[in-house]
Structure formats: structure tokens, C-alpha cells
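Researcher: I'm preparing a figure for a lab meeting and need a structural model of a single chain. I don't have an experimental structure, so a prediction will have to do for now. The sequence is pasted below. Please return the structure as C-alpha cells so I can convert it later.
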Amino acid sequence: MSTPEAPWDVVVIGGGNAGLVAAITAREKASRVLLLERAPAVMRGGNTRHTRNVRCVHDSGDQYTPGAYPYDELWRDLCAVGDGPADEELASFTVRESASVPGWMTAHGIRWQPPLTGTLHLGRTNRFFLGGGKALVNSYHRTAAAAGVTVWYDRTAEGLEFTGNRCSAVLVSGGDAGNPERIAARAVVCASGGFEANIDWLRRYWGSAADNFLIRGPATNDGRMLAALYALGAARAGQERGFHAVAIDARSPRFDGGIATRLDCIPFSIVVNSRGERFYDEGEELWPKRYAIWGRNIAGQPGQIAYSIWDAKVNRLFLPPMYGPAKADSVAGVAAELGLDPDAIATTVAKYNESVVAGSFDPSRLDGCRTDGLTPPKSNWAQPIDTPPFYGIAMRPGITFTFLGVRVTTDARVRRVEGGVFRNVFAAGEIMSGNILSSGYLGGFGLTIGTVWGRTAGAAAAREAVSP
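Model: Understood. Here is the structure written out cell by cell.
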């Protein structure tokens, strides 16, 4: 494909939620919008393929979100995870703008389904889109095509070419030409994700532990455009070791295992490391407010591996593991199946059972069923593990996306280390999530960030492109 002589008004780099939203929004004001998707068409969408809900403010309930979730509550929830928001102004803007996200999504082709029940506890706070992430990506592509957005597949943005403080072109590989093509652009939106699939980059901050991390999304999320922006002098946002990581089945593929590999058994189990020792409160909070700390918890254990153990009483209270758990008629038997020391596990379970304080077990809320005199404690959903058969599963950190990215202004323009901004370069989604997140995560909030900032970046890029 030859490069058009006239520059594109807006070139969007990345075909996930943030990139698609940016391209659709930019096309409302700009005539020529190009979206570069690194994957082939059948694998388009990046991490978005593995999503299923979005967390948004709403002042009243409806058939999809039963009950209100006001600004103040979402703000408190965001402040309570990790170290809280990285930039309070941008985080507040994201929370406030989230109220308009469901309506925008509906207007652009997204359909909804009733909330899920069980371990997730997300029915009131999050809205689930029908068909999950793949359906969302397909719907947005239909909307983009109808609007006149051009999409190029199997294209990798290798870098940006600048003239002064303005980006004049995107260098793109993967076309018919042997060398990277020069794609002229009046404005650029970088929505190309983080560097979670770049194990060498993760090793800079995590050392050899990174070799045991599993990546929930595609192997193409290698931070190529983030590195290019840093080389050009973009300012950094977010913590180097910051990431959204969950506990996933240790048997998962190295890349692209997606949401199906996540494990939700932790609140109703005990979790031990390879020495058979518990190391964190499994019942500290409702699962959507704590599930994203477990990847980091496990990353800090020997060999970056941990094991969840539970009994028959709770086995149907959460989504079953995709590959199935180990199962035995005794705790020692489960330990042996998992390759753990049976005596050590039996001792840990017996000590835990002895510490459980009788209460009214209720998986739908913080029930106060706890342990007494145990370190670390279990603050909710504590029951003796005493009813066969017994179950167990090995878990590793599953990295969803990294927080380290580029700093942006309130209109999503990329900031420079030396001060000021790149005049016509904008960012949306995971590549700038470190402006908002620090070391914690809320379920569904990544889609919120991508949608709010995709709209912001797309609109600002279009204004820049069509201004005299």
C-alpha cells in the first residue's frame, strides 16, 4: 500500500478500546482518520479482547446496574486501592466523565447484559457489555467503518518523525514495502498499550522474578511506542513496578491467556507459598477491590508461585478454574497433588481451622467471619477447611498492563521532560494510565480510562489537525 501524498488528519496508533474510541471521536471533526492495528484482523483489539465490563458513576440504577454509584463512592474506591490516584486532577476528571461513558458506548453500537453474580460483587458498580471484549471490538469496528475511519492491519508503528515540536509522520512497518513507510500526519494519538509483554523491560525493575510472570494479553504489547516517546523526550508518569496483575492459573500460556485464566477462589480459600505458609489476608475486602493486588502478592513469594486451598463447602461459590483444580479426600492428599509438603500444609490448615471464629457466613458481603490470633488474619469469609473433597490450585502473577507511561495534560497532550508539550501528539489508554493509577486497580476501570481518554485524545487531535 503506497503512502497517500496528502497527510492524514489523525493517525491513531493501537486498535484496542482507547484507540478505537479515539478514532471514532476524531472522525467527527477530521476528514481523514487512520487507525494502525498491529495484529491481523482476526486478533484485533489487544487487551480489550479479554474485557467484559466498565466501571462508571451513575446516580440511579437501571436494568443493568441495580443501584446508584455516585461520584463520591467511586472516588473513595479509587483512593482506597494501592497508593491512590497518581494525579488527582486527571483522576477526578476520569471519574466525573465516567458518568457519560455508558450513553456514549450505547450510541456507538455497544449492547448490554444483566450483571453477573457471585464472587465479583460488581453488579451495582459495573456495567457488562453483551458478548464481552471481542464483541465490543467488533461493534466499534462496524461503527468506525460506517463513519469512514480507515484501518490498516498488521502494521507496527516503529517511531515518530518530528519537525521542530510537531510530529510530521509515523514510521510504520509491515506493509508491502521492505522498509518502514513514512505516514504523514497532522496529529497522532498513541493508544498502543504498555510494555507488559516485554520481559526484558520488566526485568529492569523486577529482576529474574519477571521470568515467572505470565502475560494475560498479546505478546505484541512490548512498549515499542512508549520507548520511542521516551527517546523523544516525553515525560514519565506512573511507577516503574506498577502494574495491574492478578492471580492466574500457573498452567496458563505465557501470553494471551486472557480473562479465562483468572482465579476467583482466593476469598473463600487460604493461600500459601511454596513453603506452605500463608502470607496475606485472603478476606481483606470485597473481591473487586482486592483481586488486583494478588498478582503483586504472589510476585513477592519464592519462585513467584502460590497455592489456593479450599474444601467442598465453597466449591461452587466462584467461577471454576478453566483447567480444573487438584482434588483429594484429604488436605495432605491435595498438597501431594500440588507438589507441596503434605505435613507443612496439613499443619497450616489445622492452625487456620483452630483460629476461625464462628459467624454467619455470607459470600455476598463483608460478613465478619474471621480468624483470631492468626498472622496474617483472615478478616471475612473464614470457615474451617474440613469438608472433603479438598481442592487446590497453583497460581502465578498474571500481568494485564503496566502503569508506567507518559504524562499528559487535561486534553491528553503528551508532556515533555524539559517542560511544555508535544504540539500534536496525544495519548490514551494504558500508555497513560500511570497518570491516574499508582499501585492498585479497580475492576472495570481500565475500560473507563480508555474510553474517557480515547474521547479526549480523539477530540483534541481532530481540533489540532483541522485548525489553521
